[in-house]
Amino acid sequence: MLRNALLAAVTVAALLAGGCREEKRPEPPPAAPPSAAPTAASPAYEAVDVSGGGRVEGRVTFSGAKPKAEPRPITKDNATCGHGPKPSEQVLLGAGGALRNAVVTIEGIRRGKKPAAAPPVLDQKKCDYIPHVQAVVSGATLDILNSDDILHNVHGYLDGKETLFNLAMPLKGQKIQKQLTKPGLVSLQCDAGHTWMSAYIVVVENPYFAVTGADGRFALDDVPPGTYKLKAWHEKLGNLEQQVTVAPAATASAAFEYK
Question: What is the pLDDT along the chain (259 residues), one digit of tens a residue?
């Protein structure tokens, strides 16, 4: 009898052990190793007093047959916008092929002059964006105005993809402020039926930029001595680049020719 009792006890213990093994959950997988620290962003631009700064000046021109550009028909709000088609603003040429609305920038300057204190302005006047092309330094706050007594809309896209803002402005004299924090090309359009309205804002990382006027000329002052990449951008004609060396307290000349 004792032998039978011992045998029964051993059997029960074996069954219990087997049951525990069956119910035991697998251990969780080891934790994934920590991800590498993100790469540090490029240092922000630092405004300093420039000692012995130089100047870059020059002209942007176009040679050859002018690209064909269709006029912009006015299809709405004629009392404010006008009755005849508006001329194209894409390629505006002056004497000697001077190219207007080209943006000239110096790339890669991390320390230099202070940005302009006055805020950049975008106005809507007689159903046009004014100015048609401008450049601003990253971080600047843009004053967006409506000088017309009709509903306008300002839809800004960064690099043709990301919507930065989409603003309905129904009141004459209305002003909305928007800070532009991301460098890139901001294209503007009106979603209130004024399909002919367009403009561009080039947002750059430093205050060394200029937009050419009717004479095609540009000038960049207080440039720290060094060798830089000088870049020209135009909405229709694209980009041109060249290298420029700025000596202390001296003027460097540069010229861009689109063909």
Answer: 434 443 344 343 433 334 333 334 434 433 333 333 333 334 589 999 999 999 999 999 999 998 888 999 999 999 999 999 999 999 999 999 999 999 999 999 999 999 999 999 999 999 999 999 999 999 999 999 999 999 999 999 999 889 999 999 999 999 999 999 999 999 999 999 999 999 999 999 999 999 999 999 999 999 999 999 999 999 999 999 999 999 999 999 999 999 9
Q: Does a structural domain hold residue 3?
A: no
Number of domains in the chain: 1
Q: CA angle at residue 244 from 231 to 187, to 5 degrees?
A: 10
* Boundaries of domain holding 65: 53-258
End-to-end alpha-carbon separation of the chain, Å?
A: 112
Q: Is residue 240 part of a domain?
A: yes
The Cα-based distances of 22 to 12, 13, 19, 26, 219 in angstroms read 15, 14, 5, 10, 81
Query: Can you tell me which residue has the tokens 């709000």?
Result: 77
In DSSP terms, 202 is beta-bridged to: 135, 185
Asked whether 188 and 156 are in contact (CB, 8 A), the reply is yes
Dihedral Cα 241, 243, 249, 250, nearest 10 deg? -90
Distances (CA, A) of 95 to 70, 104, 184, 235: 22, 19, 31, 20
Instruction: Say which CATH number the domain at 183 has.
Output: 2.60.40.420
Q: How far is CA 177 from the centre of its chain?
A: 16
Nearest to 101 by CA among 200, 220, 219: 200
- Read off the tokens for 38: 């993100």
Please check whether residue 105 is in contact with residue 209, taking contact to mean a CB–CB distance below 8 angstroms.
yes
- The reply to whether 159 falls in a domain is yes
